[in-house]
Amino acid sequence: MTRSHKIDSRKFYIDFYFNGEYPKCKCGCGQDLHDPKGIYNLNHSMRSVKNIKKDFKCKSCPKEYITLISLAKHNTRIHQISYHQFYVDYCLDGVWPTCSCGCGEKIDSLFSYKYQYKVGDKRYIRGHISRVKNNWGHNEEAQKKSKETQREMYESGELVVWNKGETKETNENVKKISEKLKGREITWSHKMKGPKSEEHIKNLKIASDLYFSNPENVEKFRLIGVNLQKYKSKFKFNKLETYFYENFLLKYFDKDDIIWQHWVSKSLVDFYIKSKNCVIEIFGNYWHGNPEMYVESFYINQSKMTVKEIREKDTIRINRIKDDGYKVEIIWEKDLKQKPEKIHELLKSIV
Predict the structure, then answer these.
(1) Model confidence over 260-290: pLDDT tens digits?
(2) What CATH number has the domain spanning 233-350?
(3) pLDDT tens for each residue of 211-249
(4) Domains of the chain: which residue ranges?
(5) Burial, 93: exposed, middle or buried (Cβ in 10 Å; 0-12, 13-18, 19+)?
(6) Are 60 and 79 in contact (CB under 8 A)?
(7) Residue 267 and residue 257: Cα distance in Å, rounded?
(8) What is the pLDDT of residues 185-199, one digit of tens each?
(9) Chain centroid offset of residue 208 CA
(10) Contacts of 102 by beta carbon, 8 Å cutoff, 6+ apart
């Protein structure tokens, strides 16, 4: 058409597809489209976005967003509020859901079906729905009946133990299991697992106090903790402790006066200054929930605890060390990286 009848290709496209009427820009400006195949004219697409109503407003700042997921990302990045806590605050009116079986446990992973099971409006921790459906774990009659049925099936020959009469010479699977269990023994600690009486707990405490009254045993446990730290990391200790040790501690104290990873009051502390009887703990911002960065309700997945619970646990441990006559100083990761002058002043006061 363009070659034979001298018709402009653009005009042919309009006549053929739009019956001779130019399509309008979708932003609402009323102008003809410069490119009939497009939707908006140049730079007009943002006009339609600006007119969209932003229904989701942040509770911590004036920001507004079009979608809930955009607001969730903003809360996580700017306000350090986890996705789980955000979902509870915005979608569940701040009430954290618990398992519907009645155990009272929190559902840690609200979005993962690996850890929860959902039936209608009810949520269960994975495996807990059986407590409601057939009450298997709490029904003594059902368990007794199951054992009797199993015993009868074994006696009749309907059920047979898979490795009966087999040895590691005759069966490859038995051989693999025997190699895997080589060197292992069932100890008294395995046999004594489970609930203990008050008298038993009292005797255990007496035995523990007697054991740790010997300085050799205390040193032995200290070395176990040190070796464990070395095993868990490629470097000697974690990078934060190494940085503090090399750039701060050695400037104020002699190397022989510093014990790295020391057992104090049944707790493994980061540093112990012998001459000053002083314990120095390095607290990471995330792992210990820095109060300048995290709210008490923030949930730390790796620890399976909220910041409030972690702080309470740390307070109990620190108070126990202080009660035993030690001086305790806590240094936060944020201060170590951003306020070195504050750390220097603290170490001068200890000296």
Answers:
(1) 888 888 788 889 999 999 999 999 888 898 8
(2) 3.40.960.10
(3) 888 888 777 776 666 555 554 444 445 788 888 988 899
(4) 9-50, 233-350
(5) exposed
(6) yes
(7) 19
(8) 555 555 555 556 788
(9) 32
(10) 131, 132
